[in-house]
Amino acid sequence: MNFPNELVLQEQFAAAKVAVYFANPAKTTRYYGFEVKKEIFEGDFQAVQQWRAEGHTNPIFGGFKFDNQKTALSKLMNGYFFEPQTVYELVTKQVYGIKQKLPLAKSTPTYKQKNQIIQQRDETTWPNRINRVIDSLLTQADKQKVVLGRQRLLQLATEINLVSLIQQLQEQQPNSYHFVLKYYDEVFVSATPERLVAVKDGQVATAAVAGSIKRGTTPLEDTKLQTALLNDHKNLQEHTYVVATIVKKLAHLAKLDTISQPGILKTPQIQHLYTPITGNLKATKTLLDVAQRLHPTPALGGIPVEWALVIIKETETFARGLFASPIGMIMPNGDGELVIGIRSMYVVAKTVRLFAGAGILAESQAQSEYQETALKMEPMMSLLENLA
Ligand SMILES: C=C(O[C@H]1C=CC=C(C(=O)O)[C@@H]1O)C(=O)O
Q1: pTM of the entire structure?
Q2: ipTM of this complex prediction, to 2 decimal places
């Protein structure tokens, strides 16, 4: 049997009952997995660890739910992992010193008209709720940060074309991980720039991604915004909290390399403060041990974390499910990669929920945090606006 080309895999994805597509930011590794060999619903870290230890021959894909809140919405959003019956791995090949980039699949468009967003509803009370949280941060010196999210509800004219969705992701979001998980009529999509943890051959890699600003419309404006972000007190503080917490939490699991000053991570719509954190994982420790220890980092939860989780529950109007959660892949040998389910949406037929959050500190301005969440919804909005 010939190895199918990527378009065939995308068509298989659209036709499958259960499927996954997972790609790294450079798109040098792209996975497609189809149909269920084994699955687990609502597994927490321990349950998935145990389920995994029973053995699997193929990689496992899926995600955890963010916290202990359950959503009545769906099975998928309450946490779902599956071992596909078939997994295809498309990898860039090193051909005698020349790195051959894998060509991205392209279908000849047969459509005449793009899908349309016919209704949009935002949570307009969000800034008021955020102001209350800012007030309580101002009066409690021991509470530093909480990441609060909001939803946007959309109605589409027609159901999503999944072949077009994967192709548009590849075209529009070159610097992010892609994760598309399909379970019957439910689909969760993320174009996230944020890695929670990758483990390979005893090496662990994570990163702090927190602190954001928009992209400029010209190279000059873009550089000015980048400089502003690198010198902005609120964003630097927000970022420092995340780095310090990750380093502290990893101390007994890994021997970390030296941590550098924050750099910049750019996606087409937004730029972030970014600090990669790497090291040697202690023997006997696994990807899931590290993920359990780190989640939720203060880039998705807050400081102190227990307080932040209560504020999230009180302030947000929905259970997060896979939004802001560890999602990704675990290899049969226990290595793998989990990323964070942000810049994401949840689709059932023609109804779409977009999610975005922002780090709230005492010095935050509710209105500018609202704008930041709108910016973080842009990747999914732009995807939907261009779907066949
Ligand atoms: C919660 C989100 O972003 C987090 C990740 C990166 C930067 C963030 C920030 O600058 O606020 C957030 O902590 C989201 O995109 O929905």
Answers
A1: 0.95
A2: 0.98
Find the 10 Cα to ligand 1 centroid distance in Å.
29
Helix (H) or strand (E) holding 357: strand 351-360
Which of 123, 195, 209, 323 to mutate for ligand 1's pocket (most ligand atoms within 8 Å of CB)? 209
In a domain, 113, yes or no: no
Calpha distance 340→67 (Å, rounded) = 13
Q: Give the tens place of pLDDT for each residue, 26-75.
A: 998 999 999 999 999 998 999 999 998 888 899 999 999 999 999 887 88
Task: Decide: 209 in ligand 1 pocket, CB within 6 A.
Answer: yes
Asked if residue 109 is part of any domain, the answer here is: no
Domain that residue 55 falls in = 6-104+118-385
Q: How far, in Å, CA of 259 to CA of 167, rounded?
A: 36
Assess whether the C-beta atom of 345 lies below 6 angstroms from ligand 1. Answer: no
The number of distinct structural domains making up the chain is 1
3-state secondary structure of 17: coil
Cα torsion 372, 163, 349, 62 to 10°: value is -70
Q: Is residue 282 part of a domain?
A: yes
Place of tokens 């589409």: 156
Using CA atoms, how far apart are residues 245 and 242, in angstroms rounded to an integer?
A: 5
